[in-house]
Amino acid sequence: MLKTAQMGSRDLFPSLTHRVFANHASVSPLASPTQAAIEDTLQRLASHGVAAMGDLHEEIEETRILAGQLFAVEPSHIALVANTSLAISAIAASIAWTKGDRIVLFRGEFPANTTPWLLAAKRHNLEVVWLDADAFRTDKGLTELQRTLSDGQVRLVAVSAVQFSSGLRMPVEAMATLCHAHGAEIFVDAIQAMGSSPMDTTGFDYIAAGGQKWLMGPPGAALLYVRDWSALRPTLAGWLSHTDALNFLWGDPDQLDYHRSLQAGPALLEGGTPNYAGFAGLTAAMKINLSLTSEAIHTHANAWNDQIEPALEDLGFTSLRDPDKTRRSSILSVQPPEGVHAGELAGVLAEKGISVSTPDAKLRFSPSWPNRLDEPDFVIEQLRASLAP
Fold first, then answer.
1. Which of 123, 186, 211, 250 is the residue whose CA sits 20 to 30 A from 330?
2. Nearest-5° Cα angle at 190, 345 to 369
3. Residue 128 pairs with which residues in a beta bridge?
4. Within a domain: residue 1?
5. 3-state SS of the chain: helix, strand, coil percent to 5?
6. Considering the domain boundaries, does residue 3 fall inside one?
7. Do both 355 and 227 map to the same domain?
8. Burial of 186 by CB count in 10 Å (0-12 exposed, 13-18 middle, 19+ buried)?
């Protein structure tokens, strides 16, 4: 009998060895339908080689359609790329920057959403303005952003929808409104939100999200949305970026033309053979995610966090989870008690079959839909034993 995804059930993860996997903000395990989709693609390539490519190329369009549903945007504006870092780097390299343009970045961000912009600033003589992501725990953050935008010449604001270390859910919708009111664009790194923290993407100019975290797809398959592809300049185009790029392969003479025009759209960045197996897996994973809905996943994950947070605080941890529920993602990060090393503690938990992460010296819990609501009791039991004198 075919099993379906259910909240609090690990039926689709028969190979998962961890007793508690609360690490979906890192790299998630693959559900059995996702693994099966990858294996099917590899088997077809093993059996047929190039003869399998036609069908696989058609099937990959389903990935784009599902991504459009997930992002709530037009699918034809979505590029299928290797990872979030490449997506960000590609846009940073393809914007037609003008000397003196300003970029707004945030202290506390994951480096994937700072390094490409810093390189672009160095290359094009741009000004970088730094704001504190933590300021957005209150209205102070939006006030500071508005003041910065009012100073003029801000070309782009690059921000993560959810801060990877603290789990703070940024007010990206309000930030987008402010950006557009001052003639700026907004780039949203959604990898820590997409599939687990609902958001209104209506005002976003760019969205990037790898599939290996909350979407539970394989590494090496990511999504990039661009509102206006025609505004980008083609700096990373490849052979499949041309119009009628395949014509010279079908046996007709005089079709090899190096000067064919470039397509204005995702093909600009999809210039080579895609990772068919990876995107087959991501397609299967997105089907599961869409069937459950990110709203329900967010509710379930926070119910899990609600169970464990008070007990962690009783053990001397300091929770970084925002009291305001609108600023909560599906992440719960805590600061360990004085003298306790987060990495060493995570290592002890790993020996007990508990998977968590330790970004920036914090203990980070990131449960998702497969997590059971009785798991926090076991985690606290093991933490209590580990911290005992």
1. 186
2. 60
3. 103
4. no
5. 45, 15, 40
6. no
7. no
8. buried
* pTM (2 d.p.): 0.96
Q: How many domains does the chain have?
A: 2
Closest CA to 10 of 24, 25, 21: 21
322, 168 Cβ separation under 8 angstroms: yes
Domain range for 182 is 39-289
Maximum alpha-carbon separation in the chain: 80
pLDDT for res 3: 80
List, for residues 297-319, the tens digit of each pLDDT value.
Answer: 999 999 999 999 999 999 999 99
- Amino acid letter, residue 194: M
Residue 195 identity: G
Residues 178-214 have pLDDT tens digits of: 999 999 999 999 999 999 999 999 999 999 999 999 9
Same-domain pairing of 202 and 329: no
- For 372-376, the CB contacts below 8 A with 24+ separation are 372/8, 372/9, 372/10, 373/8, 373/303, 373/304, 373/307, 375/19, 375/20, 375/22, 375/304, 376/304, 376/307, 376/308, 376/311
Q: Is residue 13 part of a domain?
A: no
User: Are 30 and 218 in contact, with CB atoms under 8 Å apart?
Assistant: yes
Sheet holding 318-319, edge to edge: 318-319, 332-335, 363-365
Side-chain half-sphere CA neighbours of 227 within 13 A: 12
Q: Are 362 and 165 in contact (CB under 8 A)?
A: yes
